[in-house]
Amino acid sequence: MFLDGVTYASIARNLAEGRGRFWEPFYTATIYPAFHEHPPLAFWLQSLWFRVLGDHWYVERVYCLVAAMLMAALLALTWRAVYAPPVHDTREHRERDADDWLPIALWMLAPVVSWSIVGNLLETTVCVFVTAAVAAIAIGSRAPAAAAIVTGCASGLCIAGAVLSKGPVGFFPLAAPVIMAVLPDRRRSSLWSAAGQWTMVALCAVVLYRAPSARDSLSTYVDQQIITALAGQREVSGSSITIVIALLQGVWLPMTLAIALVVAAARGWVRPTSRDRQVAIVFTLIGLAGTLPMLVSPKQTGHYLMPAVPFYAIGAAALVAETVDTLARRLSKGRGVFAIRILTAAVALVGLVAIWLPAVERDPMRLADLDRLAAVAPRGETVGICPSANGDWMLHAWMQRRFLVSLDAAEPHSHEWFLKSPDIAADCPPSTCVPISEPEGELMLMRCR
Mean pLDDT over all residues of the chain? Predict the structure, then answer.
């Protein structure tokens, strides 16, 4: 994980241990004792895992792994629902249940997906909610009016969950039932789903507005994060179309290369059916609804794409499904079976070898220093640091995540403990402090009289 993921895990763990409240999460005693940089739902959901499993390094990893499995399951569910015939339609429809692995495979090809999941980014939680919201619409679009309204309400609740996890980016599934009405056999039910969905989102907004703690927390978030970001007063991207470049390079390019390999293996492109083309258009438009609105903000980065990637994957899978079926029929005969077995064995062998390789760490020297401090670090204390080290935000994050330690550069001499780091001034640390940790690394914990 890098800075954001470590910070979010610290906040979730603090909530689990009673530090902070749902609408006022706690980061450290010196940095964001009331954290309003994001809405709180994702932190609270992850805190449930800390409450059950305890404070261990693997808790946020298990949370993200389960979230990834949920996303994959929801992708398969959406794929099956959109190809299944409406319940009132007696005509024959081509179902593609056997191809439900295809959008999952294309989804996994986008580097931003694994990067966001491994990094414990908020987009992981948002993606679960928005994928569930669209899956509910896909199911409701083939149901009678009453059931379509119910699934629309469920979709609206999921949208509220996405917004309460990462803000306005979670609103884009509101476009899903309108876009899905492009499918001729889903038009009426999709519009009923839209009615339930929009009504539920409006009800959630009213409830949150009438709750003083929720209103105050979300108002602070809007003032501190959204308004300043739109005004260009926070981090500014290098380009005004950063999100489009990331979409082309990080999502569509790997999917296109994979499709090209499939076409080459199948010895030709098989024209998609009319239904496949409709599905490709619908889900690509849903993905664009989750991407293009970000262009209004000067603050853009690649991982903001993550919640929209499942829908690009479904759209791409629909275009190549016929070709994949042709290739599968060819491989199911003769030498093809032998080739598949060899490939499967090779993938399994590479996976087994990878298990025993050292993990790729983002900052191995810093993590080694933290390991050396573990035996003597004062858990839950505020520790002084030199003002010159105060901008090391990763140090703040890791000391909080590992030891519940808050770092104070404003009054560093007023604490019993002091953390010496490489970048120090001549009069820092205080002369009354003596080392108590091993002097091998860059970090040294000191105790002061």
Answer: 88
